[in-house]
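subagent[fold] <- orchestrator: predict structure for attached chain, return C-alpha cells only, no commentary.
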Amino acid sequence: MLDPALPSEANALLRAHGLRPRKRWGQNFLCDRNVLDRIVRAAALTSGDHVLEIGPGLGALTRALAGQAASVTAVEIDPLLEPILRETTGGLPNVRLVFGDFLKLDLGSLLEEAFGGGPGVVAANIPYYITSPLIERLMGQKGRICRMVLLVQQEFAQRLAARPGTDEYGSMSVFAQYHCRVELLGTVSRHVFVPPPEVSSAIVRLTPALPGTVAVQDEARFFRLVRAAFSQRRKTLLNTLSTAEAGLSRAEAEALLRRCGIDPGRRGETLSLEEFARLAAG
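subagent[fold] -> orchestrator:
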C-alpha cells in the first residue's frame, strides 16, 4: 500500500486515481511524518479518546490519529477522494469515513456519532478560506469537545493567539480567546505539503473553556460590542461604539466607557478580554 505521508507516494496515489489537488477546496495534502507526529502529540490522545478529523485528504493524518485513539471519524468534502481514503484507511477498523461538507452537516448528530456520550478531540488540516466559519461552528458545540488541534495558515494562527495592542489582534482573537485557551505550538514549512501552498502554516491547540475564559453574563452583547469596536480600527472607541451595530448613541457610548474606567479615546485593538467584559456588563 502506498503511504500518503510520503510526498512521492502521495503523488503516486493521486496519479493512480487520475486526480490532481483541487484549488476549489484549497487542497494541500500534508506529507511529513514529523509534522504528523507533532499534531498527534499536541492532541494528547489516549487509547480511549474519540477523534473527529475534518478534511482527511489522502488519509495521512487519519492513519496517525487512528494509531493512538479509540476511533477516528473523518469528514471529507471531496467525493473524488473516496477511493483513495478507502484504500489508505481500509485496514483500520477504528476509522469511519463521512463524505460531505462539514459546514452543512448536522453538527450535533455528527458529534454524537463521532464521540458517543462524552466529549472528544477535533483534529484538522484545514484550508484558510473555511477556517473562521469552521472554528465558529465548533465553538457552538464546545461543551462536547476536549480540545482542538488545527493546522492553519500561520497568519491566521497568529491572529488567534494575538495580544491586545498588536496588529494581529482583532475580533477573531477575542472570539477564540474567550471560548478557549489558545496555544500556538509552532510553524510548519510550506514545503511539507503536496502541492506546497504559498505561505507557511502553524499548529494551534484550542482548549474550550466553559462558559468562557472571562465572566460574561450576556454573550450576545459582549460580541456585539467587540465587533463594533473592531469595525473601524483607526477610530476611537467613542466613535466605533456610537453606531447601530453597538446599539448606542454617542452620549450612551461615552457614559458606558467612563463607567467602566476606559478612556473613550482608546481604540478597540487595545482592549483586553477583561475590559470588553466590563463593557458588556456596564
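orchestrator: received. Logging for downstream: The chain has two domains: 7-208, 219-281. Residues 84 and 90 are 9 Å apart (CA to CA).
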